[in-house]
Write a structure and sequence with these properties.
The chain is an alpha/beta fold. The chain is about 40% helix and about 20% strand. A hairpin with a 2-residue loop joins β2 (about 30-45) and β3 (about 45-50). α1 packs across α7 (about 210-220), α5 (about 140-145) packs across α6 and α7 packs antiparallel against α8. The longest helix has 17 residues, at about 225-245. The chain is globular and about 45 Å long. The protein binds adenosine-5'-diphosphate and the ligand Cc1ncc(COP(=O)(O)OP(=O)(O)O)c(N)n1. Keywords: ATP-binding, Kinase, Nucleotide-binding, Thiamine biosynthesis, Transferase. Pfam families: Phos_pyr_kin (PF08543).
Length: about 270
């Protein structure tokens, strides 16, 4: 049994954050663990309140998991402030964890800030150099690089710049690119560019897409897949989850974490 940890915020509505991550880990048949960075009061309409954890609480959760159970791969999501980012980076170094996926969560769909503005430099300086994969959406890639992204060439240039910050692999997600019928994600490993392109699904129920996608990459890395293969499976997983999204709540409903296995008729194997 492979073990995956999410270091992220709680979404009371269950569509994003650690809830989405743990559902994804379970569906992809890895043992899921969590270190909570913040509690959000949140639903499909938006984020009503944010309560960050004390840094000691974040550090202790990671320590407890690391020194007993162990971690085959981990992801970070909402980290909220510079102190939490620095604490997480220290723990990753302490345990010498290498399969680290950073989802640089900044702003929720409804516009709420999930990362303080002054924490962006901590993310760039302390966390990106430690990660195997970073998964910014287009607005996050623009913040990380200071450039505007309109075209595929812009995505490539942004990926180069983020790679230069120390991230070994960069996935720029295309969910926010509304000018095309395709949803195109770009993977850059420092040498080659790969585009993952699927038809865009027309739905308002896309709450938690980024969390689910990065959790799926993490689960596949925990099982020993290459970065390219992990991203390929994650793209299939999120496509099925959006294509069968759940029309619950009055706003942006969640994606459907069961859909990938149901569509594939997959048998439950530890490695599948
Ligand atoms: N409407 C859509 N149709 C198909 N794929 C989508 C759609 N929206 C997002 N995705 C995919 O979901 C994943 C998360 O992307 P994105 O929504 O950009 O992230 P975030 O939730 O961090 O803003 C990416 O693989 C992206 O291509
Ligand atoms: C607690 C928490 N973490 C992360 C997010 C952002 O999730 P994301 O997958 O980017 O989805 P949207 O917010 O864009 O729907 C969140 N909302 N809450």
């Amino acid at each position: 049994m492979k073990r995956a940890m999410t270091i992220a915020g709680s979404d009371s509505g269950g569509g994003a954050g650690i809830q989405a991550d743990l559902k994804t880990f379970q569906e992809l048949k890895v043992f899921g663990m969590s270190a909570l960075t913040a509690v959000t009061a949140q639903n499909t309409l938006g984020v009503q309140a944010v309560f960050p954890m004390e840094v000691e609480a974040v550090a202790e959760q990671i320590q407890s998991v690391g020194e007993d159970i162990g971690v085959d791969a981990l992801k970070t999501g909402m980290l909220f402030n510079a102190e939490i980012i620095e604490t997480v980076a220290e723990k990753i170094k302490y345990f010498a964890w290498e399969k680290v996926v950073v989802d640089p969560v900044m702003i929720a769909k409804g516009g709420a800030s999930l990362l303080q503005q002054e924490a962006v430099s901590a993310l760039k300086d302390h966390l990106l150099p430690l990660c195997l994969v970073v998964t910014p959406n287009i607005p996050e890639a623009e913040v990380l690089t200071g450039m505007t992204i309109l075209s595929h060439d812009d995505k490539k240039e942004a990926a180069r710049r983020i790679h230069a910050l120390g991230a070994k692999n960069v996935v720029i997600k295309g969910g926010h690119d509304l000018n095309t019928n395709e949803s195109v994600d770009l993977l850059f490993n420092g040498a080659d560019f790969e585009f993952f392109s699927v038809p865009r699904i027309e739905t308002k129920n896309t709450h938690g897409t980024g969390c689910t996608f990065s959790a799926a990459i993490t689960a596949q890395l925990a099982k020993g897949l290459t970065v390219y293969d992990a991203v390929s499976v994650a793209k299939e997983f999120i496509h099925a989850a959006i294509g069968n999204s759940l029309n619950i709540g009055q706003g942006h409903g969640p994606t459907n974490h069961w859909a990938f296995n149901r569509e594939k008729g997959r048998l439950a194997t530890w490695h599948g």
